[in-house]
Amino acid sequence: MTRAMDGLFLSDSEGRSNDGLFKHPSRFIFEAGADNVEYVKDLDSSLMENTKKYIEADERKLKESIPAFAAGDRVRHPVFGEGTVTAADAAALCYSVRFDALATDRSIRFGAQLEKA
Questions:
Q1: CA 20 to 30 Å from 57, out of 24, 48, 50, 73?
Q2: Beta carbons of 23 and 16 less than 8 angstroms apart
C-alpha cells in the first residue's frame, strides 16, 4: 500500500480457505479508512464487526508476545530468504530485516514466518 501512487485495487473472496477456516476481509481495508475505500459490493455489517474483533484479538496477542529476534540476528523467511534483523520495534510490532537478496530493508510483522538462519 505504501507504493500506490494513484490508486490501489484489492480483491477478496468469500467463504472458507483451503484448510476450512473462515476467510476474513483483509486488515488493509480497515487500515485504509472508510473514506478511502470504495466497494464494488458492500461487506455485510456483521462480517465487518467479526473481522474487527478478530484483528483486535490478533493485535493483543502480538503485543503480549516478546520479540523472538534482536538486531544482528540472522533469520530466514520462506519468500525473501536469509537476512539480518536490523531492528525490532515493539511499538510497531515488527522487525526491520535486510534480506541478502534485496536492496532495501523490509518490515516483517512479529509472528511472521521467520526462523533463525
A1: 73
A2: yes
Question: Looking at the predicted structure, is the pLDDT value of residue 116 above 90?
Answer: yes
Cα torsion for 25, 31, 37, 40, to the nearest 10°?
A: -10
Distance CA 35, CA 27 (A): 15
| Paired strand residues for 77 | 81
Sequence-ordered list of residues with C-beta below 8 angstroms from that of 24, at least 6 positions apart, any chain: 47, 50, 51, 54, 55
SS (H, E, C) the chain: CCCCCCCCCCCCCCCECCCCCECCCCHHHHHHCHHHCCCCCCCCHHHHHHHHHHHHHHHHHHHHCCCCCCCCCEEEECCCEEEEEEEEECCCCEEEEEECCCCCCEEEECCCCCEEC
Q: What is the residue type of 27?
A: R
The pTM (predicted TM-score) of the whole model is: 0.52
Per-residue pLDDT of 24-33, as tens digits, reads: 777 777 777 7
